[in-house]
């Protein structure tokens, strides 16, 4: 017999090209697939909860030559539209982007094979940010509790089971990361690790500035680092999503900008769950040369 909680779990999601996704996004998928990129678009790609917002604010500041005032003019999801995001009364990423003047910065969580062809045809610059799977699983567990139209994720071990098998929005973390790692030698793609950002943010900011074709002056780097500190972004209404109504993102449960550390998984995985996860990880990632750090 079908477990009723599992049925509910899938009720809010649908599949697009075999990948689980929020139902409203799938309804308008043609608009995403046929999206027309422009050559000077900058695309930020992540698996959800891998440091998208942090990297987005950094990239926005780079493009505005470190002018913090420009960041404070609007909330991040208006300055950097979310391509596939669609919610009748709240957001329409494609519409926002079509109405936006160039140069545009946008974010998406799509795996490599689902990124609209136009971005490749126009040779757009793409930044892929990734984070170790265990911390991503933890962060997504809290995210599920925060997004009102997402189902109850159940207990943490139950959620990890779904996560391991890709039965979560955007599918398998493993396939996502591998699909983008295959593009690592593409000169239009820059690969950045959240753990490297945590360890030495200046070094990663310089990499980003150079990739975006600008000069990494000390002053610019310092301005960016200060403005995007965890505590700054957590307290900033333009980056912390507190302007979104509670009916959509309920931050009473947990804040959107939550802990911002590497290794929080140790507070959530039991020894047994960790061993099970490691076995699964090895099976999925054994051919992938990308190595993550789960502590720094
Ligand atoms: N300035 C910053 N420095 C470090 N981590 C940050 C950050 N801003 C956001 N984060 C963390 O990035 C994760 C969210 O990623 P995304 O923006 O892709 O949704 C959250 O992780 P945690 O839930 O582990 O705290 C959040 O706390
Ligand atoms: C549209 C949505 C509310 C916004 C949810 C959302 C917000 C921010 C995200 O970016 S990040 O991964 O944290 O950088 C991702 C999402 C994905 C789900 C979005 C929600 C679906 C239902 C709803 O109301």
TrEMBL record:
Q: Where is the Sulfotransferase domain?
A: 39-288
Which UniProt keywords are given for this protein, alphabetically ordered? Answer: Transferase
- Write down the EC number: 2.8.2.-
Supply the InterPro entries for this chain: P-loop_NTPase, Sulfotransferase_dom
UniProt lists the family membership as follows: Belongs to the sulfotransferase 1 family.
Question: From which organism does this entry originate?
Answer: Galeopterus variegatus (Malayan flying lemur)
Q: Per its record, how is this protein called by name?
A: Sulfotransferase
Q: State the superkingdom.
A: Eukaryota
């Amino acid at each position: 017999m079908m477990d009723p909680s599992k049925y509910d779990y899938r009720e809010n999601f649908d599949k697009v090209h075999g990948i689980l996704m929020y139902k409203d996004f799938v309804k308008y998928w043609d608009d995403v697939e046929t999206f027309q990129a422009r050559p000077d678009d900058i695309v930020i790609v992540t698996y959800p909860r891998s440091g998208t917002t942090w990297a987005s604010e950094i990239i926005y500041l780079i493009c505005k030559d470190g002018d913090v005032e420009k960041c404070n003019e609007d909330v991040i999801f208006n300055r950097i539209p979310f391509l596939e995001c669609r919610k009748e009364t709240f957001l329409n990423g494609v519409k926002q982007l079509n109405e936006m003047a160039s140069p545009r910065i946008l974010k998406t969580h799509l795996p490599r094979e689902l990124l609209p062809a136009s971005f490749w045809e126009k040779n757009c610059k793409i930044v892929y940010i990734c984070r170790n799977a265990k911390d991503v699983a933890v962060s997504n567990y809290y995210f599920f509790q925060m997004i009102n139209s997402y189902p109850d994720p159940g207990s943490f071990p139950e959620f990890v089971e779904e996560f391991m098998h890709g039965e979560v929005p955007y599918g398998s973390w493993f396939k996502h990361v591998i699909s983008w790692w295959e593009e690592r030698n593409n000169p239009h793609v820059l690969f950045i690790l959240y753990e490297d950002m945590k360890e030495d943010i200046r070094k990663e900011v310089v990499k980003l500035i150079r990739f975006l074709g600008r000069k990494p002056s000390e002053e610019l780097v310092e301005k960016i680092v200060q403005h995007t500190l965890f505590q700054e972004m957590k307290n900033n209404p333009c980056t912390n999503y507190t302007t979104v109504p509670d009916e959509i993102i309920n931050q009473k449960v947990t804040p959107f900008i939550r802990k911002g550390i590497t290794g929080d998984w140790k507070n959530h995985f039991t020894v047994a769950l960790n061993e099970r996860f490691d076995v699964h990880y090895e099976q999925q990632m054994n051919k992938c040369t990308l190595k993550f750090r789960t502590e720094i």
